[in-house]
Structures are given as structure tokens and as C-alpha cells.
Design a protein that fits this description.
Layout lengths: L7 E6 L3 E3 L3 E3 L3 H16 L3 E6 L16 E4 L8 H17 L3 E6 L10 H10 L2 E4 L2 H9 L5 E3 L19 H12 L7 E6 L5 H14 L5 E7 L5 H10 L5 E7 L2 H10 L2 E4 L6 H4 L4 H8 L3 E4 L13 E2 L3 H10 L1 H18 L2 H12 L24 E2 L8 E2 L11 H4 L3 H11 L7 E2 L2 E2 L4 H14 L3 E5 L5 H13 L4 E6 L13 E5 L5 H10 L7 E5 L5 H11 L8 E4 L17 H11 L4 E3 L1 H4 L11 E4 L1
Amino acid sequence: MNKDNLITVHWIVDGIVGSEQAGYSSTLASNRYRAILPAQGLRALGHDARIVDMSQWDPMAYPADRVPQVVVIGKLLPGPRFETLQTRLFDGIQAARRRGIKVLADINDDHFDHPLLGAYWAALVRAADAIVAGSEAMAEIVRRHGGSKVFVVGDPVAAPYAKPRAYRRETGLRHWLMRVLSTMGFPPPPLRLIWYGNPTNWPSLIEWMPQLVRFAQDQPWVLTVVSRAGAGIEQFVHGFNSAGNAAARMEFREWSEAVQWEAVEEADLVLLPSNLDKQKNTVKTANRLVDALQSGRFVIAAPVPAYQPLSEYAWLGLDPVAGIRWALDNPEKVLDKIQRGQEYVQAHHSLDAITRRWVDVLGRLPVNEHSNTYRLGLKSTAPSATMLKTEQTDQPVYIDKPSACVNHDPVHTGQSVCDNYLVWYYNTQVWKRTFYHGIRTLKLPTDMWNYQEIIFERGIAYVIETGTRHGGSALFFADTLEALGGDGFVISIDVDTQSRKVQSHPRIRFLQGDSGSVEMVEQVKALLPPNRKPVFLILDSDHSMAHVLRELEVWVPFLNRGDYLVVEDTNVNGHPVRPDHGPGPWEAIHAYLAAHVGVLAHDFERERKFGVTSAPYGYYYKL
């Protein structure tokens, strides 16, 4: 790798022990998943990534030739050192700024309402050049507290790979023999369950215990609990076992990574409850579910928003017994889900995948505290100026806001390659000379290709688009649904029909009217069957912020869980085209998400697939 393209980044952390030579460790999951592992991944790619103890950090002590380009501020732990470290940290951030170091704060827990941590959390959001959050739900909360530059980076998988395994009940003669032995006082082998996590998550498991105890009458079980000692969990386990219920037993093991992996290997099913009435639980990352799948075990989990992309590979719900019964009744399906889940984990949560996401984020930090330009300053093969002129126009286009280059990698592709392409595509007006079957279609071809993949992968039956214009995209969607088969059709809405070149089609229903009105939503409902199949909604009409917000407010409640949404043309208003546009779809979707946390999930992986899109931060599915 070109030396000029290497990133120097220091993680400023609390609660990590060890050294680069001997290795680092921490009892805190956020330190392991969001500092130790990413730093390890960056070093494997040749970058200079180091772990620095927060209590020892002094930016003014860096030698002139060893000043990092970026520092990542990790979690500051409550305790007797909190006030001292807080003061030291903010002094360090100011010093880092004076030395030209970019400051990225990693926030993956919601402590904004905490009596001790809340003020610190809010001040850190204001002090940092940008924020990285562990989940989209966490990112939305950060934005509500003033974070204008927020990226989402998930957690890498940490568990060792294990072959998928499913619990199988005895059948035939062996089942008969087990029943006979049971009547003689020899119970069948118990189902082995496991829960692991921080003691702060323990109350969620307590809420599941009454259902699990009743279930033990049908299926004996042993529940292994792996957590930190000294939090009262051992006493609970002892008291539970003292009650004398032979069919429901618990065992406690003090946490270490090795103990956790060993206990999961012995288990049949993993339990991951969560009290979603508490907002802090809705922002959690997916690391526990990801690790369980990597370990080859099926998971029964609460429907945490970050788990939704993995819903096809686990059982998500609030009734653990229903999930356990399904798993016991369907061992072959369980094996298939685990295997496909492991493939998903490798594609989206491997250390390599998460490391490259960190590289992406580190390469898009603002130049200075007065600029929104996302540029680290690495050598680039792309134009380095923030003002670009094309051969076709003398009008300058400023690339001064978050990038449409959703797969941006400054190390391998150069800075703003995707932005520059999109600006070229827009300013040369190629987008006005793009046709589908002879009908003008005002969309980016990579987005169109993404859309047909979404339709086939998700089994979309109905496409609803606001903004018909010439009708090229409606025809494209109709042909795609025809290829998919079934009775699905397109509903295309516009206030004007004068530009439309497609007058009729057996799979298109054209509607005229205000796409942001409740009345239009009711018209669409009347065209669809009561138990309809999945819908793909595309908002591409009036691009003012006010109108797109109106559309989101009336259409998102109409969507069912799993339905897909794309908010198009979030690239205007300087994202990176049309900086003169004024607030538009980008600002509308961020405002909507800030006001409706946990309703939509950002499908970043799908959005970033082809590197460039006219809908950056515009791909979502309903939770």
C-alpha cells in the first residue's frame, strides 16, 4: 500500500489493559468491539492504529513527526476518576485541535439522560469534529443532541467459528425409552440454554424467567449465565436452584472471553432478551447476536432494532417460549438459518468488513472545525479542490457536505471520486438523457439496478412511486414485476400528467393528486388487497424538505414491517450536487428519523453496493 495513503489513528480509551506487543483486553464490550478489534484490523491493513490510555493522553507530547491524523475518543467510565478524566479529556481535545488532529467521538450507549454522564455526553458531541455511532438508532439520538456529522459503524464479530448445531428431540424407540425412564425417575437430558452479557442487561432475563420456568414442565432445561461476578447474579442463581425445581436449573460462570466461547459451544440455544421500553436498550449494537451465529448456535432474541437485518437468521420476538418451541420443532430450518446467518456475518460483520467501514469514516472527517468538507487530507488521484468546474458549465459546484460516495474508500480509490462522478453526471445533464425502452428516466442507473435486486430479493409485489414525470421508471418497475411473476403492479402518483409518455400498462395504476396527502394514501390502500404482500415505496416528487416530510409522515405509517423505502435525490443541497437547492430530501429524512426513532432501519449495505447513489442515506426498511 502507498505510504502516503496510510492513516495514523489513536484510540483514547478507559478500562483497557495490555500492550501492542502482548495484546490488549478489556471486560467492557465497547472497548473490545470498538477499539481493540478495529485497531487490530487497521494495523493488518498497514495503518498506524494505537491504543492510548485516557489518563496518559497528552496531545502536546506527540513528537512533530508522530502526530496522529485522527484520535477516536472511547467510552469514559463512571467512577472516582470521572471528573478528573473528563477535564483532562476536554483539555486534550482542545490541544489536539491546535495540533491539527481530527477528533472523532465513538458513542454507542444512550447516556444523555444520565445524571452524571449526560452533561459530559452532550459536551462531547459538541466538541468532536464528528461522531461514530454503533447503530442507526444511536445515531438518531446523537443527531437530536446536536451531532450534525454522524456515521454508523457496527461491531465486528469476535467469536470463533463453529459448525451450526441444532437441538434434536429423540424420536421413535429412543423417545419411547426416554419416556419410560422418566417415569422411573430418570429425566431426559435437559435442553441447554445460555445467556451472556453485562450485569446491566440482567433484569431483561429476569423478566423472561416466569415463562421459561413454566416451559420446563414440558422440556427440562439448564440455563448457563455468563457475566461479571459481584453484581448479585450468583446469589440469584443460588436462590433459584434452592427452590428445588429439578426441571429448571441455572449455573453461573464468571465472564471471560474464553469462558463465554466455551459455554456457547456447550449450549443448544442462546437467549438475548431486552426491555425495549427503555430507550437505552433500543440503541444497542448487534454484537451478541452476531457472535452467537458465528458460534453456530440459534438465537432467541428480543426485536432490538439493530437485530432486524439479521431477522432471517434468528427468532425475534417477546415470547421466548414460542421461539424455543419453534426451534425444537424445526431443527433443519434452524441449521439453514444459522448457516445463512454465518454467511451474512462474514459479509457484513467480519473484521475486514468493519475495518474498511472505519477506513471510510476516518477518510471523511471535516478539514477543520469551520468546514463540513469530508476530507482527511490523504494523497488522492481525484481533484482535491472543494470547488469543481466541468467542461460543460462554468458554474462551480462545491463539494462541502456529507458524501454521496457511500462506498467511499480514500485509501484505495482516492478522495471524492464518487462525488466528482456524481457532479459530472449531474452537471453534464446526462441524467436528463437517460432512457428506458425509449422513455426518459431521470434516475441513476446504479440505483435502478439496485431497485430490481431489492424487488427480487425481498419478493416485492407492489411498487409505489411518488413522481411519475415521463413514466420511464414506472415502466421499468412494471417490467421487473412481470419478470418476477405474480399479480403485483405499480402505483405511480403525480400532480401533473402532461409529461407522461406511458399512457397505459396492465401492471401500472396511474393516480393524479398530492402525494403528501392522507387522501392519496387512502386511494392507494383501496387498490391493494387487505393482506397485501411486500411494498417498495419510492419518494421522488417535489424535493422540498417540507413536502418530503409530509410524504414521510403519511406514508411510513402505511408501511408494514419489512416494506422497503427509498427517499430519492437526497444528493441535492450540496450532498454533493445543487448546493443552491435549499433544504430538501436529505434534511427531511434526517428530521423524520430524529422524531421517529426505531421506526426505520437504514440499509447502508444495500445503499453502498455500487459505490455511488442519488439517494445517500435514502435506503430504509420498516421495522
